[in-house]
Amino acid sequence: MSWVAIRMLLGDRVKYFGLVFGVAFATLLMAQQASLFAGLVRRAASTAYDVRDANLWVMDSRTEQEDSSEPIPATALQRVRGVPGVAWAVPLLRANTTIKTADGIVKAGRLIGVDDATFIGLPQQFILGSPDALHTANAVVLDKGGYEFIWPGQPYRLGRSFEMNDKRAVVVGIVDARKAFSTELIIYSKYNDALDFTPGGRNRLTYVIARTADGLAPEKVAEAIGAATGLRARSSVQFRQDSFTYIINTSGITFSFVVTISLGFIVGVAIVGLTFSLFVRDNIKQFGALKAIGVGNWALLRMVVLQAAWVGAIGYCIGIGMAALFFSSTRNVNSLSVSHMPWQIMLGTAAAMAVILLLSGFGSLRKVLGTDPAIVFRG
Length: 379
Description:
There is one protein chain. By secondary structure, this protein is of the alpha+beta class. The protein has two domains: about 1-45 and about 250-375, no CATH class; about 75-230, no CATH class. It is built from twelve helices and ten strands. The protein has helices at about 1-10, 15-45, 45-50, 75-80, 145-150, 190-195, 220-230, 235-250, 255-280, 285-290, 295-330, 345-370, and strands at about 55-60, 85-100, 105-115, 125-130, 140-145, 160-165, 165-175, 185-190, 205-210, 230-235. A six-stranded mixed barrel has the order 2-3-8-5-7-6. Strand 2 (about 85-100) and strand 3 form a beta hairpin. Helix 2 packs antiparallel against helix 12 (about 345-370) and helix 11 packs antiparallel against helix 12 (about 345-370). The protein is elongated. The mean pLDDT is about 85.
């Protein structure tokens, strides 16, 4: 009976391709939008992802997520270093800034000051230059997206300069950093140089980033830091999750993407449901003939389920493949390289398509099971 079900499905090419297209389109729309949303949310913790050596973040008690940091006293660094379980701790400055190029173009960006001695906090993958070049005067490192943002369409070249808060900055390196949520331009410098580049008040230190001693859980040491200093301490995993949660709960993009993904689901139900209903209606005599020769309802049920599963599997694979192809082809385009499609999105999309096929096939299944065998003999 499985062979008969597949032959019946493939026999009506128009409706067969319509079903596959409906499933593929709904899969593409839901997977693409969910991946774009996941990529945007991950951008909210871009700095926390780039800092790989540290597994602890210490900040002001009012700081809720990466983009809403409040400066803390410089003495916090030594206080954190004195907490049992902390192997090392270094300062990290993170501030909003503006730059002006030689052409007079003004752009907004983010300045990150990393430890002068260890360069912890600096992305590890250099496209041009090296960390040691930061020891030169007025030296800064740009992320590749920021370089393209300042000098679009121009090849990477070291030695370019711009003004940052009326001070000259010279590009000595280009790194591959994660895209940020709120800016296209990220600038790295030594911590003490960053203090000169950004005027500020009495407290200038943004974060203390640290690492636990071997064998200690970051969450436990974070609790000890909080108790000893009164500051907010989070493990890297917790800090990233805080940033994700903040964006999801407070940003309007969450509602926009939920609406778009829901529309993809509704479109899938409409297209697949209508096409599947037409397919069953046009083949109702064939189902009646099968009942006339003794095929039971359970066998017919399995046939319809097999047809739905066949269409769903092919359409899902095409849709997911098209989404992956789109993300692969745009990953080097700075303005489009947002997506993040983990296995959870793929699994969730597959579950949504299963629900669509279930809803679409329910009405059609009632028609099949209620088919009168005598319909074969009617004109």
